Amino acid sequence: MISIVSRPPPGYTSQAPVASALRIPPGRRERPRRITGLLPRRVTRPPIPTVEGISMSTSDRPATAAGTFTIGGDLPVRRLGYGTMQLPGPGVWGESRDPEEAVRVLRRAVELGVNFIDTADAYGPFVADHLLKKALHPYPSDLVIATKAGFARTGPGQWVPIGRPEYLRQQVELSLRHLGLERIDLLQLHRIDPSVPLADQVGELAALQQEGKIRHIGLSEVGIAEVEEASRTATIVSVQNLYNLSRRDAEPVLEHASARDMAFIPWFPLATGELARAGGPLASVAEEHGATPAQLALAWLLKRSPVILPIPGTSSVAHLEDNVAAALVDLDDAEYAVLLRSVA
Ligand SMILES: NC(=O)c1ccc[n+]([C@@H]2O[C@H](COP(=O)([O-])OP(=O)(O)OC[C@H]3O[C@@H](n4cnc5c(N)ncnc54)[C@H](OP(=O)(O)O)[C@@H]3O)[C@@H](O)[C@H]2O)c1
User: Fold this and answer.
1) 220 CA: nearest ligand 1 atom
2) 175 C-alpha to center of ligand 1: Å?
3) How confident is the model at residue 59 (pLDDT cuts 50, 70, 90)?
């Protein structure tokens, strides 16, 4: 019997434990309450303090239930983040179809407790970064913005890797300006340019780090050999690879990252929406157990490894709220296995 329970926050007390409010009792055919958005009204939680000292409950800020991961040993983030790639226009090119909703999405993410946002100079280009700055600058003190450099954009859906050191430097300088930052917390090399020695690409990022413009360096879409080669030039604190419940080719890299306490940031955590859609591979399990498909896909990632930081992308507040509530879904081992089988 599969059940979905909610992680109780520290100090949680209630007449009706969260587990019994959401778990499907053995032998009962009754469906549990939906957990989309916030917790069921009947379940009340005591306020818990946040790092800013403002009292808010986990149901107000569901991302807090995902727990934290400390990037590079000194940058704590809540494990369920947000990715900005859905905010620019079609083909991740040009202005947003709905800039006001995009701003609402970013502000709502922070309200829900998200403090890790992944973006890139290439999204728009710079459209996502302008929206980020408009929505959230001056940034909350605990917000970590991870960005990337290494792709030039030549049109909708077109991505050209450029890793020449002078280009990477230019893009980092532009990112600082567009985001309104003095230092980038996490700069990820978006792609390794095969025509430029890796040591030169990572070496330029290390030089920018020495100059105080970058705090930590990460990589994107790499194999273990590339992580090891890059690590000879600089300390690599994160890897961002394509990974989700239905696409797990990056398992070896994930294992490598887990063994070294390196953040693993899975891009396409919802398989570009395939895992989230009605009628998709998780739809019947989700329907049966009172969650949404997106929540199950994200809860599976959160359980897969403590170094995983999912960054689901969306252009809608409703989908954002649905996704962040995944932090409240706690899968047991049997449920985890059922989800794996459901996409096999
Ligand atoms: N390093 C890299 O090379 C790389 C490559 C790709 C992406 N990324 C990063 O990874 C992030 C996530 O990837 P992604 O945004 O492309 O893909 P994704 O998170 O796997 O899926 C996004 C898609 O799912 C839909 N969606 C989101 N939440 C939903 C929900 N609750 N119900 C139904 N549909 C939902 C979105 O549509 P709506 O907008 O309508 O919600 C969108 O079409 C990006 O934002 C970006 O930061 C990095």
Assistant:
1) 1
2) 21
3) confident
The domain defined by 66-331 folds into TIM Barrel (3.20.20)
Every domain of the chain and the residues it spans: 66-331
What is the predicted pLDDT for the residue at 24? Answer: 28
- Whether the Cβ atoms of residue 128 and residue 84 lie closer than 8 Å to each other: yes
Q: How many CB atoms lie within 10 A of CB 154?
A: 10
Distance 163 CA to ligand 1 centre (A): 25
Residue 276 CA to ligand 1 centre (angstroms): 10
State yes or no: pLDDT of 298 exceeds 70: yes
Please list every protein residue whose CB sits less than 6 Å from any atom of ligand 1: 83-86, 118, 220-221, 240, 267-273, 276-277, 294, 311-316, 319, 322-323
Question: From CA 265, how far away is CA 219, in angstroms rounded?
Answer: 10
The verdict on whether 82 is a catalytic residue reads no
Three-class SS state of 87: coil
Asked if 312 and 118 touch (Cβ cutoff 8 Å), the reply is no
Task: Check 12, 82, 123, 243 and give the catalytic one.
Answer: 123
159, β-bridge pairs = 153
Task: Give the closest residue (by CA) to ligand 1 atom 25.
Answer: 273
Structure tokens at 45: 């939680």
- Which residue CA neighbors atom 4 of ligand 1 most closely? 267
Task: Identify the band that residue 42 occupies on the pLDDT scale cut at 50, 70 and 90.
Answer: very low
The pLDDT value recorded for residue 56 is 53
* Per-residue burial over 49-62, b = 16 or more CB atoms within 10 Å of its CB, e = otherwise: eeeeeeeebbbbbb
pLDDT higher than 90, residue 269: yes
Average pLDDT of the segment spanning 190-216: 98
pLDDT of residue 316 exceeding 70, the answer is yes
Write down the pLDDT at residue 57. Answer: 64
Q: How many residues are present in the chain?
A: 344
